[in-house]
Specification:
The complex is a heterodimer of chains A (308) and B (416). Helix content of chain A is 74%, strand content 1%. Chain A is built from 13 helices and 2 strands; from the N terminus they run H-E-E-H-H-H-H-H-H-H-H-H-H-H-H. A two-stranded antiparallel sheet of chain A has the order 1-2. In chain A, helix 10 packs antiparallel against helix 13 and helix 12 packs antiparallel against helix 13. Chain B starts with a helix and ends with a helix. Helix content of chain B is 46%, strand content 13%. The chains are: A mainly alpha (308), B alpha+beta (416). Chains A and B meet through loops of A and helix 3, helix 4, helix 18 and helix 19 of B.
Chain lengths: 308, 416
C-alpha cells in the first residue's frame, strides 16, 4: 500500500516546494522596487552621513579624517545639550495637547450625525499644507501691527495691549505650539478615528447592557482596544516633534535669546551657516540613534498582547 | 623631392596654424553664477555684454541663502563657473580655501586700479594675492523722512550729525502721534545690523575686530556707547515694538509706511522709494558717530574667477569691460547702481539726484570687517553679534551683552 501512495506523495511534495519557491521569488519581485527605493534614498545616504561624521568636512576646502573627534566635541557642545533639552521639553508639552485635542475631535467626528464629513475635512485640511507654509501664515497672524490675533484677543478682553508674540520669551513657545497643533491635530485625529471605527459596535452594546455609562465605555472598551493605533500615532507624533525645524526657523529664528533652537535647527546651523558638514553629520547620527531608542521604548510600553 | 617635402611641410604647418588661430578666436560661452538679490541688474549687464561681444555669457541665478552651498558642492564636483560674483564678505574665506584664482597680475594692469572701491579690494587680498575685484557696490546710510521732520519742527535740510541729534529728532517725531515713531531698526536681523549699526561704532572711532580680523575688540567703549544709544531710544518708546521680532522683512517696509522718522538703509532703497513710494519725501545722510564723524558699511559683490574655471582669459575680458568708464557710467550709474570706482561717484547721472552721490560717497569712505568666519560672527541669527544687540537693547544689560559677545567672538576666532 505504501508503494502505491509514495510516488504521488513525492510528486506532490516536489510540486509544493516548487510552487512555494516560485511564490517566494514572485513576492521578492513585488517588493524589489520599494527595497531599491529605500536602499537608494535612505540606506546609502545614511552610510554616507556616517562616513562624513568621521571627518572634519568644511564645505570649502580639504576634508580630513578625524575619527570620533566630532562625537567627543559634541559632549562639550553646550548648545547641543540645550537644544536636546529644549526639544524634549517642547515634545513633552505639545504631545499631550495634540493627543487630547485629537481624541476629543475624533470622538466628535465619529458621531453619526449628518454633515460630520465637513468637520472631518475641516479639521484635516491644515495637515495638507506644508509646515513651512503654515508657519509663515502664523507669523503674519501673530504680527503686532497687521495680524488678527491681537485684535481678536483684545476685543474679548483677554489682553490689554498688543503682544509681540514671537519676540516675547513668555509667549514665543506658546505661539509656536498653537500653530503646530493647529496644523497637525487633524492627522492624529484621523488615525485615532480609524482605530475607533475598527472596534465592533457589539462590544459597546454588550457593555451598555451591563450598565456601563459613556465614560466607562470609553475607559474600559475603547481605550484598551485603541492601544495599537494609539502607539502608532504616538510614535509618529513624537518623532515629528523631535524633528521640528521649520516652525522654529521661520517663526522665532531660534529666538528669543536663542531659547528655541531645536536639535535639527542646530544641525542646520552647523551644516549650512558654519559649513561644518562633518559635525552636522555627526549630530544627525546621534539624533537618529536617540529617535530609534525612543521609538523602541514607546513600542515596548504600548505593546498590545490582547487580541479580539 | 626634398623641395617638395619642404613645401608640403610648410603648407601643413601653415594650415595647422591657421586652424588653431581660427579655433582660438571661435566664440566661447562663459558661465556666470549670481545670487538672486542682484538678478535684475546682473541680467541687464550681461545682456549688454552679449549684444556687443562674440563670447557669450550664460547666467545662472541662485537663491542667496543657497549660494555658498551651491558653489561649495559644485567645487567639490569640479563644476565651477567662469565668473562668480560673491558677497564681498565671503571673499577672504573663499580665498583662504583656495577656491579662487589669483588675479593680482591682471588687476595691476588696470589703469584705474587705485580708484576701485577700497573695501572691496582690501577684502579680496589674502596673503600676497588678490582674488577678486569689485562688481556691485552698496553703502549704508541714514534715511530720514523730510515730511515728518518738517511736521515736527525740524529742518529737513539739516539731518542729524551725532547720536544726540538723532535722539532729539526721534523724540520730536514720536511726539507727533501714536503711530509715528522716530527711529527703526530690525531687531532680529543679524546682517541688517552689521550693515547699519557697525558704522555708528566706526564713525565714533571704535571697532569690533582688529584690522587682520583675528582679534575681537568688542570691549571698545564705543561699542557700549552705541548699544546704550539704541537702548535709550528703545526705552523711551521711540522705536515700534514690532521691531524686536523683525528678522529683516520690514527692513525697508517700515520706512515705506511713512510713519518712521529715521532708519539705516542702503542704496537699493533709493530706487524702491522713488519708483514705488513717490509720496515719501526722503533725504539721505551719512551714519554719524557719537559726537560727529561719519562712516558706512561698504557692501556689495566682488567678482572672482573660481579656481579651475575653463575660460580664464575671457573672464578677465568681461571684468575689465564691466569696470570700464562707459559701463560704469552708462549702465551702472544711469540705472541708479553705485559705480564701484570712487572717481566716478560724481557723474552726470547722479547730478540729477544728489542722494545717489551721497550714497556713493558713503561707500567710498565705508569699511567692511575682514574675517574668515564672517557668517558665524555677524550673519548668524543665533550668533554673538545679534545676541549682543538684543541682550543690550531689549534686555537692558549692556555690560553683560558686551562681555558675552567678546567671549563668543574670541572663541569663534580662535577655533579657525
Amino acid at each position: 500500500m505504501t508503494d502505491q501512495v509514495a510516488p504521488s506523495v513525492t510528486v506532490t511534495n516536489i510540486a509544493r516546494r516548487t510552487y512555494r519557491r516560485r511564490r517566494n521569488y514572485t513576492g521578492l519581485f513585488f517588493v524589489l522596487p520599494a527595497v531599491l527605493f529605500t536602499f537608494t534614498f535612505f540606506v546609502i545616504p545614511l552610510i554616507m552621513t556616517a562616513f562624513m561624521s568621521l571627518h572634519d568636512w568644511p564645505l570649502l576646502g580639504e576634508r580630513k579624517l578625524i575619527g570620533l573627534d566630532n562625537y567627543v566635541a559634541m559632549a562639550n557642545d553646550r548648545q547641543f545639550w540645550n537644544s536636546l533639552l529644549f526639544t524634549t521639553r517642547y515634545t513633552l508639552l505639545i504631545t499631550p495637547v495634540i493627543f487630547i485635542l485629537a481624541f476629543v475631535l475624533a470622538l466628535l467626528v465619529n458621531l453619526p450625525l449628518r454633515g460630520v464629513g465637513i468637520f472631518r475635512t475641516a479639521y484635516f485640511l491644515p495637515v495638507v499644507i506644508g509646515l513651512g507654509t503654515s508657519s509663515l501664515l502664523w507669523v503674519w497672524l501673530l504680527n503686532d501691527r497687521v495680524g488678527i490675533i491681537n485684535p481678536i484677543l483684545s476685543s474679548v478682553g483677554l489682553i490689554d495691549r498688543s503682544i509681540v508674540w514671537l519676540a516675547d520669551p513668555n509667549y514665543a513657545m506658546i505661539a509656536v505650539i498653537i500653530s503646530v497643533v493647529w496644523k497637525t491635530v487633524g492627522f492624529t485625529m484621523i488615525l485615532l478615528l480609524t482605530g475607533m471605527q475598527a472596534i465592533p459596535e457589539a462590544l459597546y452594546e454588550a457593555a451598555k447592557v451591563d450598565g456601563a455609562g459613556y465614560l466607562q465605555r470609553i475607559r474600559y472598551i475603547m481605550l484598551p482596544l485603541l492601544r495599537r493605533t494609539f502607539a502608532l500615532a504616538l510614535v509618529l507624533s513624537v518623532i515629528g516633534s523631535y524633528l521640528g525645524f521649520d516652525q522654529f526657523y521661520i517663526m522665532t529664528r531660534g529666538g528669543p535669546q536663542n531659547q528655541t533652537i531645536s536639535v535639527v535647527y542646530w544641525i542646520y546651523t552647523n551644516s549650512f551657516t558654519y559649513f561644518k558638514l562633518g559635525y552636522g553629520a555627526a549630530l544627525s547620527i546621534v539624533l537618529l540613534v536617540i529617535l530609534g531608542i525612543l521609538s523602541l521604548i514607546q513600542l515596548r510600553l504600548l505593546r498590545d498582547d490582547t487580541a479580539f | 623631392m626634398c623641395r617638395r617635402l619642404f613645401l608640403f611641410s610648410l603648407f601643413t604647418a601653415f594650415f595647422l596654424l591657421s586652424i588653431s588661430v581660427v579655433a582660438a578666436q571661435e566664440p566661447v560661452t562663459l558661465t556666470l553664477w549670481s545670487r538672486d538679490a542682484n538678478q535684475a541688474f546682473v541680467r541687464q549687464l550681461v545682456d549688454a555684454w552679449n549684444e556687443t561681444h562674440d563670447n557669450q555669457i550664460d547666467v545662472t541665478i541662485i537663491p542667496s541663502a543657497e549660494f555658498v552651498t551651491r558653489f561649495g558642492t559644485g567645487a567639490a564636483a569640479g563644476e565651477v563657473p567662469d565668473l562668480l560674483p560673491i558677497d564681498l564678505i565671503y571673499v577672504p574665506e573663499f580665498a583662504r580655501a583656495g577656491q579662487l584664482t589669483d588675479i593680482s597680475e591682471f588687476a595691476s594692469e588696470l589703469p584705474y586700479f587705485d580708484q576701485l572701491s577700497p573695501s572691496h579690494v582690501r577684502l579680496a587680498r589674502y596673503e600676497d594675492g588678490l582674488y577678486a575685484l569689485p562688481f556691485t557696490a552698496e553703502g549704508s546710510v541714514l534715511i530720514y523722512n523730510k515730511g515728518l521732520f518738517e511736521a515736527a519742527g525740524l529742518d529737513p535740510e539739516a539731518p542729524p550729525t551725532n547720536y544726540q541729534e538723532i535722539l532729539e529728532a526721534a523724540r520730536a517725531i514720536r511726539a507727533l502721534g501714536d503711530d509715528t515713531y522716530g527711529f527703526y531698526f530690525s531687531g532680529a536681523c543679524a546682517g541688517c545690523n552689521a550693515f547699519t549699526f557697525l558704522p555708528l561704532i566706526w564713525a565714533s572711532g571704535g571697532d569690533v575686530l582688529s584690522d587682520d580680523g583675528l582679534t575681537a575688540t568688542l570691549d571698545d567703549p564705543e561699542v557700549a556707547a552705541a548699544l546704550e544709544f539704541y537702548q535709550q531710544m528703545w526705552n523711551e518708546g521711540l522705536i515700534p515694538p514690532g521691531a524686536q521680532a523683525d528678522s529683516g522683512t520690514d527692513f525697508l517696509n517700515a520706512f515705506t509706511t511713512g510713519t518712521i522718522g529715521m532708519a539705516g538703509t542702503g542704496a537699493f532703497s533709493i530706487s524702491v522709494l522713488k519708483n514705488d513710494y513717490p509720496d515719501i519725501d526722503f533725504g539721505i545722510t551719512f551714519l554719524p558717530g557719537r559726537e560727529g564723524g561719519v562712516s558706512s558699511f561698504a557692501g556689495g559683490d566682488s567678482i572672482a574667477v573660481p579656481a579651475g574655471a575653463q575660460h580664464v582669459e575671457e573672464a578677465f575680458e568681461f571684468i575689465e569691460w564691466a569696470l570700464s568708464d562707459e559701463v560704469q557710467l552708462d549702465i551702472y550709474a544711469q540705472t541708479g547702481q553705485l559705480p564701484v570706482r570712487i572717481d566716478l561717484a560724481e557723474n552726470e547721472y547722479f547730478e540729477a539726484d544728489p542722494r545717489l552721490t551721497t550714497n556713493a560717497e558713503a561707500m567710498a569712505l565705508g569699511r567692511t570687517p575682514y574675517s574668515f568666519v564672517y557668517n558665524q560672527l555677524f550673519n548668524d541669527p543665533n550668533g554673538p553679534w545679534l545676541q549682543m544687540i538684543q541682550t543690550a537693547v531689549f534686555g537692558g544689560d549692556v555690560e553683560g551683552a558686551v562681555s558675552t559677545a567678546q567671549e563668543r567672538f574670541t572663541q569663534i576666532l580662535s577655533g579657525q
